[in-house]
Amino acid sequence: MASDGSEEFKLVSPTISNEGKLPRHYTDEGQGAKKNISPPLEWYNLPQGTKTLSLVVEDIDAPDPEGPIVPWTHWVVANIPATVKGLPEGFSGKAAEIGGEYAAIKEGNNDLKVPGWNGPRLPTHGHRIQFRLFALDDQLRLANKVTKERLLEDIMEGHILGEASLMAKF
């Protein structure tokens, strides 16, 4: 429970258990028609005053060729209306097609410098993929190009009401 006695702000997936394995069809590896699609996500118990949500998904164990660990961004999603309770499987790239409240959602650039979900494809396995969902007190004013760095360091500063996370292993 949260410190105020209310239920905790939670991020879950019907297909990924916390600390569980990321299913292959959400990655950029392997065979099958359903590969490299964004996983389904759901959230519960938004902090009071939440107007929008933002999501950042990173491989937090990605090695830099120069040596240190530098998180690799797989997905950035911003301005998710607080009335939306989750993102369906395969949502990435289909906000306009799905329409309704989803049409206002903006996908930012991943570390391949393109918008949308880019599932992991790793030379070694055992990496942790962290899904971080931020509850915000306002709709964000976004430029055409949104990146994780701009979102976390500039745009969301002073607007975060809460954070929920989900960890998957790859």
Q: Structural class, from secondary structure content?
A: mainly beta
CATH architecture: Alpha-Beta Complex
Average pLDDT, rounded to a whole number, is 88
Biggest sheet: strand arrangement: 2-9-8-4-5-7
Gross morphology is: globular
Strand content: 25-35%
What's the CATH first level? Alpha Beta
Provide the helix percentage: under 10%
What can be said about the biggest beta sheet?
6 strands, mixed
C-alpha end-to-end distance: 29 Å
Q: What is the overall number of helices?
A: 2
CATH fold name: Phosphatidylethanolamine-binding Protein
Low-confidence spans: none
Tally of strands: 9
Q: Key features?
A:
mainly beta, YbhB_YbcL/LppC-like, 7% helix, 2 helices, three-stranded antiparallel sheet, six-stranded mixed sheet, PEBP-like_sf, Phosphatidylethanolamine-binding Protein, PEBP, 170 residues
Walk me through the structure.
With 170 residues, the chain is mainly beta. Strands 2-9-8-4-5-7 form a 6-stranded mixed β-sheet, with no helix packed on it. The chain has one domain: PEBP-like (Phosphatidylethanolamine-binding Protein), CATH 3.90.280.10. The model has no long low-confidence stretch (mean pLDDT 88). The longest helix is centred in the last third of the chain and has 8 residues, at 148-155. It starts with 9 loop residues before the first strand and ends with a strand. Helix content is 7%, strand content 30%.
Secondary structure blueprint with pairings:
Blueprint: E1 10-12, E2 20-21, E3 41-44, E4 52-59, E5 72-81, E6 86-87, H1 95-98, E7 106-108, E8 128-136, H2 148-155, E9 160-169
Parallel strand pairs: 2-9
Antiparallel strand pairs: 1-3, 3-6, 4-5, 4-8, 5-7, 8-9
